[in-house]
Write a structure and sequence with these properties.
- With 688 residues, the chain is α+β, with helices and mostly antiparallel strands.
- The chain has 22 helices and 23 strands.
- The strands form 5 sheets. Strands 1, 2, 3, 4, 5, 8, 9, 10 and 13 form a 9-stranded antiparallel sheet that branches.
- A hairpin with a 7-residue loop joins β2 (50-57) and β3 (65-72).
- It is globular and about 90 Å long.
- The termini are far apart.
Length: 688
């Protein structure tokens, strides 16, 4: 039997059966639970363990993105029995049902880091609130449904080499738990301030925070954590870490729970952090700059006091110096955070005896704690807190490669328009209120009807073809409705400017969420309510019958791009828009008012179930695995390769199957470089 010694390095491959499956919710849930159980099992197998997941992206390799699991243990505690037991758990346990973990002979791939130019690290968001001197280290609120698919999508769009590293180290040293006393003293002072009747909105939040720390941390199996991106440029590292925060954590009522700290080679912390990565270890060298404030060295008892009353608030009371503690003033400051080893030459400031379920009982009164004694909290986390980050992704390499090898038909916009434009023209016998989505894999046109399917959801990551598709739809809509109106909420503010320049009578664009409130009400009054009244007056049921009665009216299109900005809008505005969408879903088909709801990041936080239900047609370009399954209930859209721009999955509510569709690239006018007469848009200029 081959003996594998620490550090262990295992390359991870998801099983082909899992890649080729539709990766249903029950499978994902079981996989995520298995990863959580595996982490806890490894934790129980030994002390002083370091467990690290590395996503290594290298443009020169095939596949470009590889996943590794590393496990290490200090030399003075490791045994061959430990390593074999852990290896057996990983390669033969429940995790092996989803992944193949192959031991690697050396750490070369994780140690050749000369190319790294910058390191970004995710830390708990911490604040030092003045003048109250509250130190607030926020908890991680884990999104336990994160499967890392969205993060891996972003990694694979990086322009250069990159490593995403999530490393945990078991925390077992009772001599490092000076923060236990600091928590007690912080709570005592906060309760003293509270009892004094001080009016402070932050007080209740801070009290609840430390009560939670007091309840959980002394009795939990804790980990020190390091979550960082090592990259050649900051733009790649930043977007990967931001995406990880977005998907690994949940929104909280108290705001931020994470911060990203950036260091480059000139920072001394860079070298220490890089060495820790090479040695499969934790480094606390990268930290929040707020710790350099003088108030962090003050004792908690003196720093946090009730507001002075009476003459005291005018400064007439005598201010006493802080009472020195036994040998406390001569103790050197904590430099290494939770990794600092206690100095055996210094007397112990307290004697902690843990009962395994409660705060450590102190055999004698502890010395006054300083605010800086709470600093270790920002590097510690429970297994549940960190669970949203510590994830192994299911790769889609085999599926993507098989698609890119397939020869797909190319949709030509000129040919499609010239051959099928009779379907768009109202004065034609074949007019059916249609538009051409694109062509299927057999080269046949895919047609959709505004009359039958009034509202649409369009989703896709940047560069997948979403904006081009919207232009293709807008072109056809204006051709079929020469005097029709299109309202666009374009929060990026750059994608549709040419429409205002060349077709200003038809198109109105707003670019801020603040303007969206007025636009919503304008559409409701000038378009929706007016049309409903016309239907009532003419005693007809839909816009087609209204036209037959001689009323000249054309369809109206409302495009929302990007929906994430709406999701982040104030609750009143968001509620107004969603209410209107639901209302239009019921009556939009009749009155000729249609909505296209677009997003780059389709998730339940962005798209509510009501909106999904109202959009009976879904055009989904390449998205993450989780997004694909959430929208179309299969992994089809996640399997679209990066090279297949314009390729999407078309899903119709009530349809038998989802179909792939290849949408055409439509050139738009670009300043003086590309004129209208050189593009398909010339047909609109001629028609108007």
């Amino acid at each position: 039997m081959t003996i594998h010694k620490f550090p262990l390095l295992l390359e991870i491959h998801s099983h082909k059966s899992l890649q080729d499956s539709t990766y249903q919710r029950t499978i994902r849930r079981e996989l995520l639970q298995t990863q959580d159980h595996t982490l806890r099992s490894i934790r129980r197998l030994g002390t002083n363990l370091t467990i690290s997941i590395r996503y290594i992206y290298d443009l020169t390799q095939s596949p470009k993105l590889k996943t590794y699991l590393l496990i290490n243990q200090p030399h003075n505690t490791q045994t061959e029995e430990n390593s074999q037991e852990i290896l057996s758990l990983l390669t033969k346990g429940k995790l092996s049902e989803f992944f193949t973990l192959t031991p690697q002979p050396n750490l070369t791939i994780c140690q050749n880091l000369e190319w790294v130019q910058i390191i970004g690290e995710i830390l708990k968001h911490e604040e030092l609130i003045e003048p109250q001197n509250y130190y607030i280290p926020h908890f991680f609120e884990a999104n336990q449904t994160n499967d890392m698919s969205a993060v891996c999508d972003v990694i694979q769009r990086a322009d250069s080499k990159l490593i995403l590293e999530i490393t945990l180290q078991t925390y077992d040293n009772p001599n490092q738990k000076s923060w236990v006393n600091a928590i007690n003293q912080m709570l005592a002072q906060l309760e003293k301030v509270n009892a004094s009747g001080t009016k402070d909105n932050l007080l209740s939040v801070t009290l609840a925070l430390y009560q939670k720390y007091q309840q959980l941390y002394p009795s939990s199996d804790l980990f020190q954590y390091s979550i960082k991106a090592l990259a050649e440029n900051w733009s790649d590292a930043s977007v990967v870490l931001s995406t990880l925060i977005e998907h690994a954590t949940k929104e909280t009522p108290h705001g931020k729970q994470c911060r990203i700290v950036k260091v480059n080679k000139s920072n001394p912390a860079f070298s220490e952090s890089l060495e820790a990565t090479k040695n499969v270890d934790i480094s606390s060298a990268i930290e929040w700059e707020g710790w350099h404030k003088n108030n962090s060295e003050r004792s908690i008892v003196n720093a946090i006091q009730p507001q002075k009353k009476g003459l005291g608030k005018f400064g007439n009371s005598v201010s006493l110096p802080e009472k020195p503690s036994f040998n406390h003033q001569s103790q050197p400051p904590i430099i290494g955070g939770v990794n600092s080893e206690p100095n055996p030459k210094l007397p112990q400031l307290y004697n902690a005896v843990s009962d395994g379920s409660r705060l450590a009982k102190l055999s004698s009164t502890p010395p006054p704690s300083r605010i800086v004694d709470l600093k270790p909290l920002h590097r510690l986390a429970t297994a549940q807190e960190i669970s949203g980050f510590f994830r192994i992704a299911v790769t889609q390499e085999i599926s993507i490669e098989s698609i890119t090898e397939k020869s797909l038909p190319v949709a030509n916009p000129e040919d499609l328009f010239n051959y099928y434009k009779s379907l768009l023209e109202q004065d034609s016998d074949t007019y059916r209120d249609c538009y051409i989505v694109g062509i299927n894999d057999e080269g046949n046109p895919v047609i959709s009807s505004w009359a039958e399917t009034p509202h649409r959801l369009v989703a896709g990551v940047p560069g997948a073809g979403k904006t081009n598709f919207l232009n293709w739809v807008i072109f056809q809509f204006l051709y079929a409705n020469p005097t029709g109106k299109i309202y666009i909420a374009d929060f990026a503010g750059v994608d549709f400017n040419f429409l205002v320049k060349h077709f200003k009578d038809n198109v109105e664009i707003i670019t801020t969420v603040e303007e969206c409130q007025k636009l919503v009400e304008k559409i409701h009054t000038e378009e929706y309510q007016r049309r409903i009244e016309l239907l009532k007056e003419a005693e007809v049921q839909n816009i087609k019958q209204l036209r037959e009665e001689g009323v000249e009216i054309q369809r109206t299109l409302w495009i929302i791009d990007e929906a994430a900005d709406i999701a982040l809008a104030p609750s009143k505005l968001k509620e107004t828009i969603q209410t209107r969408l639901i209302e239009y879903a019921r009556k939009g088909r009749k009155c000729g008012l249609h909505v296209i709801y677009c997003t780059q990041k389709p998730s339940t936080a962005i798209i509510t179930p009501q909106v999904l239900e109202s959009c009976e047609e879904k055009v989904v370009f390449r998205v993450s695995l989780a997004a694909s399954e959430a929208i179309i209930e299969t992994s089809q859209a996640a399997k679209i390769s990066k090279e297949s721009r314009g390729r999407a999955v078309l899903m119709l509510v009530g349809g038998d199957d989802n179909d792939f569709v290849n949408t055409p690239y439509i050139q738009v006018p670009v300043g003086k470089k590309v004129l209208v007469e050189d593009t398909l848009w010339r047909y609109l200029a001629t028609k108007s």
